Structure formats: C-alpha cells, structure tokens
Amino acid sequence: MNRPSTLPGAPAMTPRVTPSIPRIRGNDYSSLTPPEIGAWTPAMRVSVIVPAYNGQEKLDLALAGLAEQSYPADLIEVIVVDNGSEQPLRLPEIRPVNTRLILCEIPGRANARNAGLQVATGDVIHWLDSDVVLDRVAIEAHMRWHHLAPYLSVTSYLRFTTVESPTPADVIAADDRAKLFEPADPHEWIVNLVESTDKLRSAAQGAFPLHVGGSTSVNAGLIKAAGPMDEELILGQDTEMGYRLSEAGAVFIPEPLSIGYHLGPTMRMRERTPISRVSHAFTPDRIPHYRWLRQHPTRQYLTPYVEVEIDVTDASYEDVRATVDNLLAGTIPDLSVVLVGPWDEVEPEYRAPLTNPRLDLVLIRGHYDGEARVRAGGRAGPAPYVLRLPPGWVPGEDSVAQLIDLMTERSLGLVSVLLAERPEGIVAARVERTAAFARAEMLAEEGEDLDGVVTEVYGSMWVDPETYGLVPAADASPLEARRSAYRRRLKEKAEEEKRRSAWQGELEKLKKEGERLNGEVKRLNGEVKRLNGEVKRLNGEVERRDGEVERLNGQVERRDGEVERLNGEVTEARAEAQRWRTSAVQFRREIGTLRRQISVLKRGRGLTRITRSGIRRIRGLLSDQSPPK
Amino acid sequence: MISPQGFLRAPSAETAEARWDGSQWIISGTAFPDGLTEGDVAGLRDLRDVRIEWPQSSAPLDVIHQLASAGVPLHSAAAPDWLDPDLRDLVTDARWLEPEIDGTGASLADLRREEHSLRLRRLGLRRSMNTSERGLVSVIVASRRPALTAFTLAQIARQRHVDLEVVYAAHGFPAEVVRQEARDFPFPIEIVELGSETVFGEVINAGVARANGGYIAKWDDDDWYSPDHLSDLLLAKEYSGADVVGMPTEFYYLEPLDITVRRGRWRTEITADLVSGATLLLERTTFQEIGGFQPVPQGGDTRLLKAIEAAGGTIYRTHGMGLLVRRAATAQHTWQPPLSEFIRGSANQWRGFHPTRILEGS
Questions:
Q1: I want to staple A158 with a disulfide (CB 3.0 to 4.6 A). Which of A187, A455, A461, B70 is the partner?
Q2: What is the domain range of residue B169?
Q3: Around Cβ B255, how many Cβ atoms within 10 Å?
Q4: Is residue B162 part of a domain?
Q5: Inter-chain CB pairs, A–B, below 8 Å
C-alpha cells in the first residue's frame, strides 16, 4: 500500500493546522479524555462563588465541604456573597484558606452572583449554592476538564438529602461524605436529560439547561464572552445564562464524579408548577430555542430566533423590498432583519430628491423606518441563527424554517445555499449557527478559514435553492395581506363546509338508498324463498306429469298396436278388393263369352229360353257379388 | 467464477465468524470443505464483514482467497505470522472500522467498507490474474486544453499493474506541447495533432487508429484516477466477461465551491447500460466492429454504449471508488450541468478537495 504524497493536480490546500485547542464537535465531548482523579498536576485557579441569604448553618456546611478538597487549596478562591441576610453572615472557622465574604445588598441571586463575579480572579468560575455540600473530589473532577479546553461548562450531580445534618467537623472528618448524606434523591430532570442524550453528547443545541447554579463551573473567559447573569430575571437566570454560554460556544459536561449534596429537598419538587409559571413568563423572551413557548403567530421577543443580514450597499430598492418583505411574511415570526450599508453616507436630498446618488438607500431606510423588525445598520447579535442573503433573492414562506430544520436535525454550523453561478463568481446565501461561529472564532488558528473550523466543530453543507424554495425576486409570487389571507381561509373553510354538507346530504341519500335497497333485498330474498317453494311444488307436479306421460305413452303404444292391426286389416281388405276386381274382370270376360254364345243361340232359336234363364242367373250373380269399392 | 459481482454497498446484517476447525473452514456455523460457490457468496453479501479466527499453524487459504476475490470484507483483530504479509496487513487493517463522518455529519461507514472490500478483491483476483500480462492497453486521451497536459500525463504515469501506451490527441493545439510534457513519461506515447474543427468523435477514432493495444481505454484530461484504475478495469473485464467495462461517476470535485461531493448511489458490480465515458475499456476489435466513435461533438460515449448493446454486447459497471470528476467553473468548459444538480441529493459532502483513500492509492 504505497501512498503517493499528493494526488497530481490536486488544488492547493491550506496545510492542515494542528489545533492548539481541542475541537469538540457539537456537544460530543468524547474526544476529551480527562485524567484520573489524583493522577495529574493542576495549574488553573478556580473562584467558587457562593451567594447566600440567611441560612448560616447550611453555609457553614457548604464551606466545610469546600475545605479539605482534593484540589490544591492554593488554587481555590471562595467568595461568599451575603445577599443582605437579616442576620449578617459570617465566615465560620472551618473553611478553605482563601475565603472572602462580600456584601451585595441588592436582592436576587443574579445580583449576588454578579457581585462575586466582579471580584473573582480565577480562570474558572464555579457557581455553588450555599446549601450544597460538595464531595471531597468534586472541584478536582470539574477542574480536570477545564484544563483540557477553555470553553467548557461542567456540572456536578446534585443529590437532595433530607437526612439529619452533620456538623462541619463531621464533614471534614468523613472519608466518604456519602455516608453523611445518603440516602439522597437524584436531580431527576438533569438525570433524565443526561440519560436521554448519551450523557449530553448528542444534545447539540439542547445541552445548555445543564447550566444550573447548584454546582456548575465555567471557564471565566467564556463567561466574559457571554456576559454576566441577567439581573432582570427573577427566576430561570441559570438557564438563561446557559443559553448565552452555548451561543458563546460552550460545551456542557455532566460530571458524575463530582457530587454535591443539596441540604433539603429540591425547590422544584416542592413548587414545580408555580416555578414553571414564572419561568415560562420570562424565559421565552430570552431563549429562542424554546420553540414550544413561542407558538404565537406574530408576536416578537427580546431575542429573535433568526437574524437576517442583507448587504444593501449597491442594491435596488425593489430588490431589497422583495427580499425583506418576504422574509417578514415567513413562517418564522421571531425573525429580524439587519440592513448592512454605508448608512452614515446616506443623506436625504430635499431639494431634488430624485437626483440623490444614494436614492435607493434613502428609500430603503425610509420604507422600513417604522418596522421594528428591520434596522438599518449594526450587525446581527444574539440570535442563534444568522441568515446572510443577497438582496433580490426571495425565500418562500417556509424556506427559512426548513433551512433551520436541516441545521438542527444534522447539528450543522453552516448551511450554504447555492443561488447562482456567474462568471464573476458564486452567489450564495448562508445560514450560520451563532454558537458554531463563536466556538470557531475561539479555536481558529492564525489565518485559518473560519468556515473550515465550523465544519469541524459542527458540520457544514451546501444545498440547492430549488429544494428550499429560494427564487429570484422576479419569480416570487406576490405576498398576501393578512386580511385577504384570513378571508381566503374563511372562504375556503366555507367552501369546505359546503362541500362537506353536500357530501353529508349525498351520504344521507346514499344511506337511505342503501336502506331501501336492503329492504328490497330482504323482499327479494322472501320472493326467492317463495319461488323456491314453488319450484319444489312444480317439480312434484312435473314428476306427477311425468308419470302421466309415461302412462299415456303406454296407452299410445297400445293404440299404436291397434293401428297396426287395423292397418293389417286394411291391407287384407285391399288385397281382397284386388281379388274381387280380378274376379270382376273374369266375370266380365265370361259375360262377354256368354253374350257371344247368346247371339249365336238367338240365331239358332232353340236355345233361347234356356239361355235367357242363364242370363238371369248370371245377372243375379253379378248383383249379389259385386266387388267392394 | 467467484468475483465481486453482486457486491452489496449498504449491508443490513452485522458480522459473521470464519474459523478453521482443523480440517475445513467454518463460516457462520456452515462448513465449506470444497470451497465456496457463487451461491455461497451471495448468501454472505448482506454481511458488514466476516471476522476470521486464524489457526495457530498454517491452514489452506482457498476459502479465504475466495472471500477476498468476492470482496467480502474481512477482518481480524490479530493474524498469525504464517500468513503472507499482504493478506495479514489487509485483514488486520482496522481503519475502515473507525467511525468517521463527512463534513455534513453523515456516516462514512459504507464507503470505508467498500474501499476495504476493493483492496481485498484486488488481492484475491490478482492471485489468478496478472493484469500486467493481459496485453497492452492503449489509453486514448483527447484534449483541447494544453494547460492540462502535465496533469493528465501525471495521472497516467502513476498507473500500476498494467502494460500501457498512450495515444494523446492534441485537439486544436500543437503536439509539441504534449511532447515537451512527456519527456519523462514512463510509458510509450504517441501524439496526434488535430485541428480544432475536428469533431470529438473523429478525434477519438484518430487516436484509436494509432493504437497498438488489444484494449482501448478512454481517459478524460481533467479527472482524477486511482493508480489501479486500468488494472481494476482489466480485472472487471475478465470476471464479468462483458464487452465494455466502466465505472459510475460518484465523486465530483466542484471547483467553484471548493467542495467534494458524492452523489448517486449507483448499483455497482452489475451488468448495466450506463457507465462513465471517462472510464470506458473495451477490446480494440470490439471498437472497430461497431464502427468506432460516431463523428459527433457530444454524446459519443452514450452512442457507443448504445451501439454495443444494439450489437448484442454487454456492458459491466464496476466500482467507482477510484474516479473523481472535476466540475470546473462554467466559463472554462463546453457544456456542463448546473452546479446545483451536483449538490441536490448528494449523499456526502466534504469541504475542499477530498479524494477517496482508493484514489489516493491506498
């Protein structure tokens, strides 16, 4: 298997760089192999931020949990943030060496965490709740991951314990802290999420809810990129920050070796419904991935699902309108448009408006001035998907949604639509996954093509415009106003109803006809039955007649015999008649002879008398014995 | 004859085991004391692979060579020393079993399996057939693009297991250009110069008229071919017995987008009516019997295939793992289908120039 170095004529390829940072695809972190616990040399510093409000006893236990960690104490910084407790909190004696207490008077966990974040100096930020006691290796189990890549968010397995609390001294004395807190309940929905997604490796855009404040650590640089906690939220801040971290390129890792014992049952277990009620009021505005919470057909949200960037610099007003108007009428309502152009060079010309060399830009800006979803200037920002579309190309009503579907189904970072091939180059539209490009920016080596890195960390694909319904403006079908759409729907519904009721009538008629036919069938069945009887009877009759016929045949036979006999008699009679005729002829001859004799005798006189008597006799004979006719 | 005919590219069954029981080979529990029949092979086609348990000491390999010739993917975690090194390297090569995805996240398992199968086929089939001794193959190149001459000749120069000569038709440019590029060319080459007004079909015929080989192989000036391209065609010619053999076009390098795509999941190793014109191989006498190429500027390949079929001949389509067709920018080519046609329904995509391992010669 000799392998030539390169294929002849292969296009020049940028030499493949050896990435200095490992490249994780989607959320599939299986390419990272963390070292065994206790078998490596840590170097990174972690800041554990513990916001607390009242609950000194639990805080004492949580801090005892942070003491005696397997991770080097000089690499751990603990910042306790007293969020205005009624009785000011104090630092107990049993605590990590580097522990500080700061005060944040503004109520709210987000404020307290941000206050801690501001003073934190670690390479990694570890959010820890003040009622969570960590297992002895918990910090190390997190940190072994953070040493592998700078874009990770690692979460402990939280277990909810209701056993009687030990003392802080018990906590640091215990070899195995499980003995102090078990039996405990698992964090059910995290366990479900993790188990249903191959330990979150197949979760892609669905991994971010793992970012829970109970015990999660995040690379500090990643937090810097994503921004601090949202202080406007009263609940769901962790999830919201998880979303922003994912958009900044984060990978979310559940770490079963890092166990945190939550003192008491979970809040969610106690108050699930009211919490969902509050978080469902706030989070949909900020987390576009929660599509099921964004079912309204038209309303807008703080963070759009898709932002469309259109470079209108040299575009005609008509082309831009065709593109933008169709985008705004598509099946993704939470979509906004950024028009990129030399806006600061565009000045309206009031005296002779039509002579303005930038007239089309003036018209474009003026036309969309009142449309909140379209803005002239700026760049796409927080949306999870960014579509870059050349003006004059028009997506169909569902085109953008279908492109996004393709990206979510295949976890792609980039989909390019080949719109046209021109002598001067390729015309294409692109959908970019913000999270993929943010990660690629982080990972790209000097001069490396970003799309290539995106392909490595998510995947990329070219598609054809026909399949996704993108057409040039000239081929686009006109948009329908909502009211005419509504009327058309109504009309269609009415027609449908009419058709339905016509069908209903027809159905009734057919039903009746069916019933009638059933009756007919029944009647005919009766008739058949009767006729069968008749046939039977007639068969009897036929049989009887047959007998009669036989009898008559016998008679006929007998008569035939009679006829034969009579025929014989007739023949006999005929034969006799023949005989008589023959006799008659003979007699005539005799008579003739006798007449001649008489004549002879007349001449001789003497014999006259005798002959006369002879004639008499003969005449008598003739009259008595004339032959039958 | 046991051959790759009927190879299944997307198996639905898992793996079977082959072992030597001391006197015979047992595959999936069935003993094959007298070797395999074509029917036996057909029964193994749906398997992803056959795992071989080797005996400690040497055993007859007839059945194993048959499996290899058939292209049944074979694998062993380890192989004994008594096995010949080529076979041992191949069955223990586990690269094809490593999970791999393309640029869009689609699995490459079937592609890598087919490449592995192809290496085994060559090993098995070449045992009984030395393709270098099958006679001279005349490679016919008709090119309008002097700029591609070096590229084309380099593709042909790396052909192996074959005895070849080249007839290079310089179509509308001076023969001298080719002569210059062919100075170090390792095979015999004849150069024909034809005016640009000559239609393509006639250019091919002019090339064939100067050919000395028993076989004619058509060659495109801008595509990439595996080093075993001609040898693979000769093997297929032998085991298929067809009058024309060729390959499907599956892999394209789309130059304007700088991506490689794989499209059209053709059935291969089958008698077919369509093969790529860039891969035709037939006997010179067959070519002459059907009257050569028709004097048309385009579509000559298809007409040739139709003529073969009309004359009662058969066409065989072997694998397409070693061919990568270039789709250049529109302006540079006479006629080309729109780029979007290559993208629509493509089964795989890679960024950049991404040849198969077979094409790279491994």
A1: A187
A2: 132-245+274-319
A3: 16
A4: yes
A5: 91
Establish if B329 touches chain A: CB-CB under 8 angstroms.
yes
Query: In chain B, whose CA is at the least distance from the CA of A457?
Result: B103
Q: Taking the CA of residue A457 as centre, how many other CA atoms within 13 Å lie in the half-sphere pointing to its CB? A: 31
pLDDT tens, chain B, 362 aa long: 899 999 999 999 999 999 999 899 999 999 998 899 999 999 999 999 999 999 998 999 999 999 999 999 999 999 999 999 999 999 999 999 999 999 999 999 999 999 999 999 999 999 988 888 889 999 999 999 999 999 999 999 999 999 999 999 999 999 999 999 999 999 999 999 999 999 999 999 999 999 999 999 999 999 999 999 999 999 999 999 999 999 999 999 999 999 999 987 789 999 998 999 999 999 999 999 999 888 888 888 999 999 999 999 999 999 999 999 999 887 654 567 889 999 998 899 999 999 999 988 87
Pick the closest to residue B171 from B213, B139, B151, B199 (CA basis). B199
Same domain, yes or no, for B68 and B50? yes
| Residues of A in Cβ contact (< 8 Å) with B341 | 464
Give how many domains chain B has, as a whole number: 2
How deeply is A217 buried, as exposed, middle or buried, from its count of CB atoms within 10 A (0-12, 13-18, 19+)? buried
Q: CB-hemisphere CA count at 13 Å for A623?
A: 5
The residue among B86, B102, B128 that closes a domain is B128
Do B162 and B309 have their domain in common? yes
Residues B117 and B197 reside in one and the same domain: no
CB contact under 8 A, A421 and B344: no
CATH class for the domain made up of A41-287: alpha beta
Please report whether residue B337 resides in a domain: no
- The interface predicted TM-score of the complex, written ipTM, equals 0.91
CA–CA dist A537, A544 (Å, integer): 11
For residue A412, give the chain B residue with the closest CA: B104
Identify whether residues B120 and B94 lie together within a single domain.
yes
Of A423, A460, A462, Cβ closest to residue B343: A462
- B305 found inside a domain: yes
Q: What whole-number distance in Å separates Cα of residue B316 and Cα of residue B308?
A: 12
Domain A306-475: CATH superfamily is Spore Coat Polysaccharide Biosynthesis Protein SpsA; Chain A (3.90.550.10)
Q: Classify residue B129 by burial, with Cβ atoms within 10 Å: 0-12, 13-18, 19+.
A: middle
